Amino acid sequence: MKLKTLLLPFAALALCANAFAAPPSDASLERLFEVQRMDALLDQSLQRVEGIMLANPNIQNFLKDAPADKRPQLEAALRNHANRIVTEINTPQVRAQFRKAGMDGIKTVYTQEEVDALIGFYGTEVGQSILDKMPRYLEATTNPMMTIVTEKYEKSNQNEKLVREIHQIMCGGKNPAPDCSTQPPKAARRK
């Protein structure tokens, strides 16, 4: 029993060791961003916005349901919208905000030792090779996952239930909201 009592403070100290670890310095985070080629990664991501937007299952369904003679105009409008978004994002001010948000986020997760290890790894030939493949990796994994999530959401009648629940909250009881004269759409029946 006495041994357990003696070991308890050491176990607690070991569990809390990460809390006492040095946070990463701004200089080391800048170096991490450099070896991870964050600016180039952002450029690549911005170049893919149009494709990601047009590949969205909701957009695809919308275009599929649109009259055939209107599809080219709709696609052009969506491309223009994507390009406007990229133009608004791809400014020095927004890039600085991204960098600060990234640095602030990393500081809450990694220690200086971990950032140094990441710098060491991504500074190697293998680390750079992995970074080269990262956009393809993200595209190969994220797009199918988003398709699954979108399909599950659309198949679920939870969104209709939420609309009805919000309508009930807003329109039920005393002091109903002014636009409560109409009923929300009912959820479709499942076969």
Structure described in brief:
It is built from eleven helices and no strands. It is mainly α. Helix 3 (26-35) runs parallel beside helix 9 and helix 5 (49-55) crosses helix 7.
Structure description:
This protein has 191 residues and is mostly helical. It has one domain. The protein contains 11 helices and no strands. It has helices at residues 2-15, 17-20, 26-35, 38-47, 49-55, 57-65, 71-89, 92-109, 112-122, 125-155, 158-171. Helix 3 (26-35) packs parallel to helix 9 (112-122) and helix 5 packs across helix 7. The termini are far apart.
Biggest pleated sheet: none
Backbone shape: extended
The count of β-strands is: 0
Mean pLDDT: 83
Report helical residue fraction.
over 70%
SS-based class = mainly alpha
Order of helices and strands: HHHHHHHHHHH
- Please report the distance between the alpha carbons of the first and last residues: 63 Å
The fraction of residues assigned to DSSP E strands is under 5%
- The number of helical segments is 11
Spans of at least 5 consecutive residues with low confidence: none
Spatial extent as radius of gyration:
25 Å
Please give the domain count: 1
How would you summarize the topology of this molecule?
Blueprint: H1 2-15, H2 17-20, H3 26-35, H4 38-47, H5 49-55, H6 57-65, H7 71-89, H8 92-109, H9 112-122, H10 125-155, H11 158-171
Helix pairs in contact: 3-9, 5-7
